[in-house]
Amino acid sequence: MTEKYVYSFNEGNKELKDLLGSKGANLAEMTKMLLPVPPGFTLTTESCKRFFYEKQSIWNGLDKEIDAHLKQLEQLTGKKFSDMENPLLLSIRSGASHSMPGMMDTILNLGLNDQSVVGLSNATSNERFAYDSYRRFIQMFSDVVMEIPKVRFESIIEKVKKIKEIELDKDLDGDDLKSIVKKYKEIYLQETKNEFPQDPMEQLRLAIKAVFASWNNPRAIFYREMHNISKLNGTAVNIQSMVFGNKGESSGTGVVFTRDPGTGDKKLFGEFLLNAQGEDVVAGIRTPNDIVELNILMPEIYHQIKEIARNLEKHYKDMQDIEFTIEDGTLFLLQTRNGKRTAHSAIAIAVDLHKDGVITKEEALMRIKPQQIEQLLHSNFDENAIIKATSIAKGLAASPGAASGRICFTAESVEEAYKKGIKTILVRQETSPEDISGMVKAEGILTARGGMTSHAAVVARGMGKCCVAGCSQVKIHEEEKTVKYKDGVLHEGDFISLDGTTGIVYLDEIEKTKPTLGETFRELMDWIDEIKTISVRANADTPEDAKQALEFGAEGIGLIRTEHMFFKENRVSSVRRMILSSTAEERAKALNELLPMQKNDFYQIYDVMGELPVTIRLLDPPLHEFMPVKEEEIRELAKTMSLSLEELNGRITELHEVNPMLGHRGVRLGITYPEISRMQVRAIMEAAIEQQVNKNNEVEPEIMIPLISDVKELIYIKAEIEDEIKKVFTEKRKTISYHIGTMIEVPRATLTADKIAEEADFFSFGTNDLTQMGFGFSRDDSGSFISDYMEKNILEQGPFDTIDQEGIGQLVKLAVEKGRQIKPNFKIGVCGEHGGDPASIEFFQKLGLTYVSCSPFRVPIARLAAAQAAIRYPSSKIK
Ligand code: PEP
Ligand code: MG
Q1: What pLDDT does 877 receive?
Q2: Which mutation among 541, 559, 668, 745 tests ligand 1's pocket best, with the greatest number of atoms within 8 A of CB?
Q3: What is the DSSP string of 790-837?
Q4: pLDDT tens figures, 95-122
Q5: What is the pTM of this model?
Q6: Pairwise CA distance, residues 189 & 357, whole Å
Q7: CA 594–ligand 2 middle distance (angstroms)
Q8: Do residues 451 and 470 lie in contact, with contact meaning Cβ atoms separated by under 8 Å?
Q9: pLDDT per position as a tens digit, 634-665
Q10: What are residue 557's DSSP bridge partners?
Q11: 750 near 770, Cβ under 8 Å?
Q12: Which is more confidently placed, 720 or 286?
């Protein structure tokens, strides 16, 4: 069987995205749905792969297939590709299986040459149209195929417009365009030392090769890296007969979304331009009209679009982003795809589609990316600060959020500033794919041109980045590096603030506030809780953190780091005395001071959490974090401890550790000084008893021992603290339930987890330390080289961000298996940073863990990730 590399639009369907690219598959699907799609064919992604295998050339077999499909196209359209009178013209567009807006390249009007442009002019009796099409073709071909900078062409148009005193491209007449074409060809000759190619077949082959080759241009590679897109064959090439939106005032081109991508509202949302072609709307060259205006200008077309939008959304079961062209009053569709949207609208749309019975609850949940939840938690400007702020202009509210930063005019300067930790706003006339790296690193984006579907708007929304687009009230001079507004001028490095929700631009930096979450969000979170099987707790050390965690839906506290409670100003001195004292009596004195403070802390936290589980970890400080450093601090401490300066310094030197992370911390401290653990446990239990007595709150404390590596450590410390608990019960004449568990964070503990499980009521993985000790990467020092590991593909992800499944994950798995061999329903959680990371949560779900615990702000993200993991791995059995 001969290999097939080319598919006509009526051969494919939407399921063939991997083969035809998403654009090609959707064009085929719309053709199947009998929608008005100009005929065409698709060169598959496999052909792109083979193109690179063939050393970037078009092999014989592909040539033949292209020929055959061109003939078919000629038959369908009744035009001839190389005809000089009424030529068949083509659009050439790339399209991989993942949509990569703006990353790959497009050529329109291919097939035109010096002769056929005359033919086209005669056949349509429209010279302006013919030469406008030709000049566009030369410009796009030169850009995409020959990489001649666009500005060379744009400056010519600008000059002609200036001479003729006109503002818009569409007001150029046939003669103007003829002279522009002549100049364009001269540029082409200057730049390439060749005449502009006149043979349509040669044009086509060069264009196909350029689109294939663009798969590996640095912008495309960067985009794929940024979105973690790998393992794709390449891009498909869509070759389609042209329809023309630039034929006059009854023609036009536009983009519509089936819903508002900013809010999710169920209404047609989009823009169009009359007498324009292809990229004009998205490129932001002219500011387009709102789609509702089409209802006045061409009501029939407007209703046709509305009807099609409804059908496409129903068919694809998702919000669609549709490109269309109107040629002489006839509508054509050029593309449909799932529309990019803000986090807010993603939730609104998913919830709405489920309520409309279009998708299931599970499908709705799978539609939302955990990162989008993160976007929802974005801050806004403080209401009071905003009243006092000076607004200087208003543009389009292209992507919500609030951003303040220093003005930068190029992606490079944004990147430079980013390296120095300086926050920036990327300010551009309009953005293009070359700006992506700067857009990623800027706080926000401001453009003077372009509408809601311009490159800046679409890309920023996808990134969840604040963007104000089409802000024509400011004049941006990129070369001069100035932004002129009504009352003044700003320069590179000056501060501005953008409100992406209102489109307003302000002077200076403005204070921000935490966001609030709406009703739809709460509804979605309820669904999440119905579906997820793993609990989500929070790591919280204060009543405020605990409140925040509860607000975000935490089901308990998985980790209180008690050493964080000791950092408070008025306690440090007692803590230092506790550590530095050389006698048990002195230590007891310091501990007595700390006891009521600790007890009150726990009491407050129990109060917030009610009967939800609260896990309190006994002291785990690397000692150096508590040592006094400043001379006057040491002097002061010596005074309170009645020690001479020398004596205290001597004690500090004695306790100095070369490697505190592997030093006298965690349970090791309790083994040397059991009275510290006893004090903490007394505080935990007394506070819990008082909660029960005073508030009828049935608190069952979970006491957690850190840094266990051998069960004997646990046995020792358990005996100490249980003895203390007994004393508390006797003194208070009351007993309550409690649990004593352990962290599993030392590799040896994972290997001996069965023995430890005999003694523990629960395990909680400290994956931070487990990663540190498993890899031998210092948590404090590895930041400086892990990025090199990632750049050199030695590591795919930072192991402190996402659990290393192959190595550290296997230690976790082993400990789970060993623990559950002893106690089949053993409660096992995770409280390292990985507890808030979606990819790690999926892994923990597969291992059948009971809960994850993460910082309060990551709780909503973790909940969604947990629900998605439960949908993917419902059995949650240990694999
Ligand atoms: C851990 O090691 O993962 C952990 C939660 O403890 P800490 O980060 O406090 O060392
Ligand atoms: Mg730890």
Answers
A1: 45
A2: 745
A3: HHTTS-SS-TTTS--TTTHHHHHHHHHHHHHHH-TT-EEEE-SGGGG-
A4: 888 866 555 678 999 999 999 999 999 9
A5: 0.75
A6: 59
A7: 23
A8: yes
A9: 898 888 888 888 988 888 888 888 888 899 99
A10: 538, 614
A11: yes
A12: 720
Q: Which residues of 480-516 are buried (b: 16+ CB within 10 A; e: fewer)?
A: ebbbebeeeebebeebbbbbbbbbbbbbeebbbeebe
**Pairing relation of β-strands 90-95 and 827-830?**
unpaired
Nearest ligand 1 atom to alpha carbon 831: 5
CA of 560 to the centre of ligand 2 (A): 12
878, pLDDT greater than 80: no
Q: Which ligand is nearest to the CA of 561?
A: 1
Q: Is the CB of 768 under 6 A from ligand 1?
A: yes
Split at pLDDT 50, 70, 90, the class of 184 is: very high
- Given a cut of 90, whether residue 873 has pLDDT beyond it is yes
Residues 88 and 79 sit within 8 Å (Cβ to Cβ): yes
Residue with the nearest Cα to atom 8 of ligand 1? Answer: 768
Angle at which helix 584-609 crosses helix 572-580, to 10 degrees, equals 140
Bridge partners for 764 per DSSP: 743, 829
Averaged pLDDT of the chain: 91
pLDDT-derived band at 449 (thresholds 50, 70, 90) equals: confident
Kindly state the percentage of the chain with pLDDT values over 70: 96
Q: For residue 396, what are the β-bridge partners?
A: 469
Name the residue with tokens 């401290």.
Answer: 669
d(CA 254, CA 325): 6
Q: Give yes or no for residue 541 CB within 6 A of ligand 1.
A: no
Mean pLDDT on 182-209: 96
Instruction: Find where tokens 């506030």 sit.
Output: 513
Q: How far apart are the first and last CA of the chain?
A: 42
| SS3 (DSSP) at 109 | strand
Q: Which candidate, 294, 301, 297, 289, places its Cα nearest to that of 330?
A: 301
Give the sheet arrangement for strand 320-327, strand by strand. 289-290, 269-274, 252-257, 320-327, 330-338
Q: Residue 283 pLDDT more than 80?
A: no
Name which of 406, 431, 264 is nearest 348 in CA terms.
Answer: 264
Tokens describing residue 560 = 């209180």
| Cβ atoms 36, 66 nearer than 8 A | no
Residues annotated as catalytic are 455, 831
Q: Could you give the C-alpha distances from 414 to 200, 418, 439, 509, 806, in angstroms and in order? A: 42, 6, 8, 17, 37
Whether the pLDDT of residue 790 is over 90: the answer is no
236, 24 contact by CB (below 8 A)? yes
Mutate to test the pocket of ligand 1, among 661, 769, 851 (most ligand atoms within 8 A of CB): 769
CB 312 within 8 A of CB 339: no
* CB-count burial class (<10 Å; 0-12, 13-18, 19+) for 75: exposed
